[in-house]
User: Fold PQQ-binding-like beta-propeller repeat protein from Nitratireductor mangrovi.
Amino acid sequence: MKHAQAEIVREYGPYEGIENVHGLTFDGKTVWFASGERLNALNPGDGALGRVIEVPADAGTAFDGQHLYQLADDRIQKIEPDSGRVVATIPTPGGAGSGLAWAEGSLWVGQHRNRKIVRVDPETGAVLRTIDCSRFVTGVTWVDSELWHGTWEAGESDLRRIDPDSGEVLHRLDLPPDTGVSGLESDGGDLFYCGGGASGKVRAIRRPRG
Assistant:
């Protein structure tokens, strides 16, 4: 297993009126992050906040190229970004989730205390497969066929790449002490975006290559 300290490239926030950052996703231009009662649009270039979508948003967020998906307790909401309208919902597997990602035509749901990642049919909510993990799962993302997830347990957080078949940890990036990860998304290139939980921050972390 490869192991290194995470390189925090930039921090965004905290922002007035936002006490927690939960899940987050990246649509190619904008980072959308969940803060409890709404989704917030963050420009990663200048750190400015833009649009707000008023929707329950207490955990993971994902983007499939057209729609946003947002965890809210026992359901996953499918949202039109332009209108902010919830156009469909499916049940959250197990009744609750933490992280959320889109890849290979499916949603991937992190289950925090169950220490699992579940692949879900986005139309029906049916569970297609389950991956066991060794720590609490607080965020999930795919990039270049690599499956990464965030952890936050016993006051320690890291990002880890795992084998999607066995769950074996292949690469681990440790966060500094007292720096939690409450959501995870790749920009498709050299960065991960991480929710910072009650710090109210979003962090950009360099993605290792190779």
